[in-house]
Amino acid sequence: xxxxxxxxxxxxxxxxxxxxxxxxxxxxxxxxxxxxxxxxxxxxxxxxxxxxxxxxxxxxxxxxxxxxxxxxxxxxxxxxxxxxxxxxxxxxxxxxxxxxxxxxxxxxxxxxxxxxxxxxxxxxxxxxxxxxxxxxxxxxxxxxxxxxxxxxxxxxxxxxxxxxxxxxxxxxxxxxxxxxxxxxxxxxxxxxxxxxxxxxxxxxxxxxxxxxxxxxxxxxxxxxxxxxxxxxxxxxxxxxxxxxxxxxxxxxxxxxxxxxxxxxxxxxxxxx
Amino acid sequence: xxxxxxxxxxxxxxxxxxxxxxxxxxxxxxxxxxxxxxxxxxxxxxxxxxxxxxxxxxxxxxxxxxxxxxxxxxxxxxxxxxxxxxxxxxxxxxxxxxxxxxxxxxxxxxxxxxxxxxxxxxxxxxxxxxxxxxxxxxxxxxxxxxxxxxxxxxxxxxxxxxxxxxxxxxxxxxxxxxxxxxxxxxxxxxxxxxxxxxxxxxxxxxxxxxxxxxxxxxxxxxxxxxxxxxxxxxxxxxxxxxxxxxxxxxxxxxxxxxxxxxxxxxxxxxxxxxxxxxxxxxxxxxxxxxxxxxxxxxxxxxxxxxxxxxxxxxxxxxxxxxxxxxxxxxxxxxxxxxxxxxxxxxxxxxx
Lengths: 272, 351
Prior knowledge:
The structure holds two protein chains of two kinds.
Chain A: H1 2-5, E1 10-15, E2 18-20, E3 41-43, H2 45-61, E4 63-70, H3 76-85, E5 89-93, H4 103-117, E6 122-126, H5 137-145, E7 149-159, E8 162-169, E9 172-179, E10 182-186, H6 198-206, E11 210-213, E12 232-239, E13 248-250, H7 254-267
Parallel strand pairs in A: 1-4, 1-6, 4-5, 5-11, 6-10, 7-10
Antiparallel strand pairs in A: 2-3, 7-8, 8-9
Helix pairs in contact in A: 3-6, 4-5
Chain B: E1 7-10, E2 13-14, E3 17-18, H1 20-36, E4 40-46, H2 50-59, E5 63-68, H3 77-91, E6 95-99, H4 102-114, E7 119-123, E8 125-128, E9 134-140, E10 145-151, E11 157-161, E12 178-181, E13 194-200, H5 204-211, E14 214-218, H6 228-238, E15 241-244, H7 246-250, E16 271-275, H8 281-287, E17 292-297, E18 310-313, H9 316-337
Parallel strand pairs in B: 1-4, 1-6, 4-5, 5-12, 6-11, 7-11, 14-15, 14-16, 16-17, 17-18
Antiparallel strand pairs in B: 2-3, 8-9, 9-10
Helix pairs in contact in B: 3-4, 6-9
């Protein structure tokens, strides 16, 4: 694969998902549930870090960045933004039959899309999505493709035709080196994603950079995807019953408020 | 389907011991195995880890499949996935559980695609349904709800479990079980990953957050990294530790190890004092199970007050120094009131 990309650098695929904007998510004080209606969406923030990492790699080594997403046609918005930020082109896998997919058909579908793009050297994903938070899709793609993976990477570089990534784990930072092609999942918050540029926006406006694929275009049977292709189901959802809180607010001047607070905490035996 | 039997737990060895999350999971998996009337097996790939297999048995495993190879000393994705997949096809377990450490999630995510089965992430509770399915319960929507995930038609049913949700099981030296050595046919290509460097995080801060009974957590409202010194002083007077919401971490004010919330740590201290934190759902997800919550914020409408036991609406730059002053005064008084021998020189905080 390296030879084919040759002098022109590497071909990077960045997988992105469109999610509701995290900071817009507020709990309704009355119903105590999440307000989701009318919440604006964005590129899943860890995927933005993955895209920024791809852009930095292309600046250093040359090559091409292809963004891939899977979802309804409204996800074009995120692909357009990624292109405005500097990606070269985008593919959206959009198909009614994909609805309800868990991480197995999602990873499978993205893998098929990556194969269809072809000659891919490096696949970048965010470490997880902020709405589903599984972190399973990146390793799932690598598992389907049977290629190496480096998860939770805060930095990557190419060294002698191999990918070297710094992997942030609980007790430190490991540096892994793997051959290409490979999948790298990117540590949330490891870089500052750039803003779209004017040139980028103009490229989007000119159009023709985003292609839609159906499941059939990727050779996927309806039985492999969506709810039918998903091993897991959400059997039910409980609302969390949080311990009922006293909710005593002290609005007195600081000296008195603090004294009342400390007194209460001592009475509750939570401070000495 | 009936042929699938037994509960398995992936045992993660690191630096000569089992990860806490693996031990915690053994305790919970034991409960599930008893409920299903089946055996609990630990899967332990590694190098020179036989003594850890004994520990796993003392903690609740009925048997341990030990796969030893010098190349398995440190976790890498491909060979560990191969071990799990090979054993899965050999023994057909009904359940495999992983600790949701970075390595556990890396392994589970790759394995579930490789063996085509479901995987529920970051579970906080398990149960068995009437039909005999594993009820895999995980937080959803930023911790505001709990989703029950079932995997009815694929085997094994797989899930990862969050760190520090389940208690550490007691070791019982009288427990017996079998350590079974397994071999897996590796190929050279399984070891195409090289670990070329490791830098340990200065872990004192991380440990402090996990262990602290009292956490004083700062948010964007602190306005400047140097103001975390105020929190440090406040926390140390309470015998607690300092934590942070996401924004100060993103801004580079404090290390990521201090971050509480959906993308940071989940904590359950006796007391959580949120200072200058507005209370985004992602933050609440990481701290809402604290026994007592105190909010200090100048915005009376801040969401954090919604879940607080006590709140002070006010300027934290007035409230914190006042709290520090009063705590010092209280300690001085308590120290003075004690008999001399109970409060030796330099340790006046015997109260």
